[in-house]
Every structure is written in C-alpha cells, then in structure tokens.
Amino acid sequence: MNRPNMVSVGVIVWLSSELMFFAGLFAMYFTIRSVAPDLWQSGPAQLNVPFSTVNTIILVISSFWCQFGVFAAERFQPRRTGSLLQFSKWGMQEWFILTYAFGGIFVIGQVFEYAELAHKGLTIATNAYGSVFILATGFHGIHVFGGLIAFLMVIGRSFASKRFGHQEATSAIVVSYYWHFVDVVWIGLFTVIYVLK
Question: Which residues are listed as membrane-spanning (predicted)?
C-alpha cells in the first residue's frame, strides 16, 4: 500500500485552515452588508470592474502556467530542453518564472486599484464598506505575495540542486496547491465583491 506524501498532506491540512480564515472574511463581508446596506449603494460604484476583470484573468492564466510547471516537475525536467520559443520543451523553471511574472502583475494591479480608490476617497478608514473591501482583498493580496516568495524558493532550489529529484518535484507540486487555492479564493472574492454588487 502506498503511503500518502506527508508534505502534501500537511499542505492540504494547512490550506483547510486557510479556507476557514477566508470563510471568516466572507462572513464578515456579508454580515456588514446586511446591517449597513446603504453603504453598498455608493461603495461598489467606485470599483473599476473592467480593470479588475483583466487583473482576475491574469491571475487565472497564471494557474495554467503553474500547472504546466508541475507537469514538467513530475517529469523531473527542471529546465527547457529546446529553444526559449519551444514552449513544449519548457521545464519547471520557465513555467514557474512565467507564473511569477503574472502573479506579480496581479499584485501591482491590486496596488494600483487601491491607489485609485484612495484618490476617490475610499480607504480602510472611510467606512465599513472600505474596511471590508480592503481587508478581504488585502489579505488575499498578502497570500498572493506569499505565493510569489514560495515560487522564488522552489525556482532557487531547482537551480541549486545537483539533481532534480522527488523532493524538488514535491516542492513544486505543493506550491501549486497553494497557488490554485489562492486563485479559487480570488474567483470567489471577485464574484462576491465585483459581480454581485
């Protein structure tokens, strides 16, 4: 009988606790919305939905790049075996660097959005809507930033290791669990905050 990988199990258990954390943020959002519905007349009108939609698409696409990197890691292929334009021969490093770039663009987009909202007068201190918006999206942004650090560590480890083996592949796989989780949480936040206004 094959024993499950304890690193994978540990990450899944940890992500379950993260799920509870985000469930609390969703509960906070809906609770404040139910007790102060008038704030939802003016607050969501200030959001730039087209910009946030593009930013969301960028994050979702990054999950695909991440998964291609995982497929390469499972083949124990840390780097490309062909030219830079032969995407089918890319290794984990190339796909994860692309994922990192898209994740970075998403974070920069979120910072830009906060700056625009602050210019319009919506900050964490403005009212309850500003508070729940910044807290929910901000904590998610912190998680994305954490994911970017994890990608740097996995990429660095793959460059440093003499032989790309099972441990290095496992690191790539568990980071992908985290990244996909962050992606799914953002889709939920985007739907609740930007679509169901």
Answer: 12-32, 52-73, 94-112, 132-156, 177-196
